[in-house]
Every structure is written in C-alpha cells, then in structure tokens.
Design brief:
The chain has helices at 22-34, 52-59, 88-92, 102-112, 137-140, 143-167, and strands at 7-12, 43-48, 64-71, 81-87, 118-125. With 179 residues, it is an alpha/beta fold. The longest helix is centred in the C-terminal third of the chain and has 25 residues, at 143-167. It is globular.
C-alpha cells in the first residue's frame, strides 16, 4: 500500500549565532540517525532563515510541519523546551499566534491557503545569540532529547496516517487530491 505522507521538519535560525543553531543541530543528528533508522518516507528536513515566505513555502502541502527554533530566555532557564501543537482548526483561527516570527508565517500561510494540516513547534530557551559556532552547554544538552521528540512526532503522525488509511479500506485520501 502506497502512502504519500508529507512531513516537513524545519529548523529556523542561524547556526552562526550560537544557540540560534539549535534547530540545525537537531537536523544534523536526525540525518545521522537516519542512516541506521530512516525517517518515514515523505519526510523532508530543511533549514530556514525564519522569513515567513520561506517558512510557508517549506510547509506548503504538508500534513505535518515540525518547526524547531530558539527562544529568547524569559525565565532564565536556558535549554528549557516549549512545545506548541496546533491542528488545522487552531491554525485557521486568527490571533492564535502573535504577529512576529512563527505567527507571521502562520498568518501569511492562512491568507494564501497554504497552512500545514498540523503544526508542532518546539522552541528552546537560548543563552547565547552572539556571533559564533556551537551551542551553549545548557542548550547543547537538549539536542538528544529534542531529536527523540521530533522523531516520535514524525513516527506517531506516520503511524496514525497508515492506521487511518487501513480503516478506510486501504485508500490513500491524498491520492484523490491530485498531489
């Protein structure tokens, strides 16, 4: 049975600004692990500068978009991981996110009718945004945990999609969309 699940894992940030490279570090680890334990077919890994048009283009026509980014520390706990989970109904609701960053990309995608079916965002509180390569110690400690969480999100989505198709008698619902 062919399943055309489209999943995008997108790292937002600048790997040359220390902790802003957390997403790129997770993607690098996912790529290394994929040699032994491949991600489900239809999964793409991409880096993005955070510009709303670029982000929207990367998640267009996806059933699941997982966005990884750094966050400015507000609580003083560098390395703390935050998870935001928005299904298609939540994504279509105006004012669900602020007008900056990810919120601007969601707003643009809403206006262009290019929202992903499901959006999960992981933000990691950063400690150091100064120019340079490498993550601070508290942020570097989250790479393995965040990689595992992203892998779980992707596999869980893929499994749910396959089970849903099996319950529909083996018909791939995306096949009728002409994509």
């Amino acid at each position: 049975m062919a399943v055309s699940t489209r999943i995008a894992v997108i790292a937002v940030g600048d790997r040359l600004r220390h902790d802003d490279g957390i997403g790129a570090a997770v993607l690098a680890r996912l790529r290394r692990r994929a040699v032994v334990r491949p991600l489900p077919p239809g999964t793409t890994l991409a880096e993005c500068d955070g510009e709303p048009g670029h982000l929207t283009g990367l998640w267009e026509n996806t059933e699941l978009a997982v966005v990884l980014e750094s966050a400015h520390a507000r609580t003083g706990h560098p390395g703390r991981v935050y998870r935001l989970d928005l299904d298609s109904a939540g994504l279509r609701c105006p004012d669900v996110l602020g007008p900056h960053g990810l919120g601007a990309a969601v707003e643009l995608a809403r206006e262009l009718d290019r929202l992903p079916g499901h959006l999960i965002a992981y933000a990691v509180e950063a400690d150091d945004f100064s120019p340079g390569d490498g993550l601070s110690t508290p942020v570097a400690r989250t790479v393995a945990l965040l990689t595992a969480r992203v892998e779980e999100e992707v596999v869980r989505h893929r499994t749910a999609t396959v089970c849903g198709i099996a319950r529909q008698g083996g018909k791939d619902p995306s096949a009728s969309r002409g994509s």
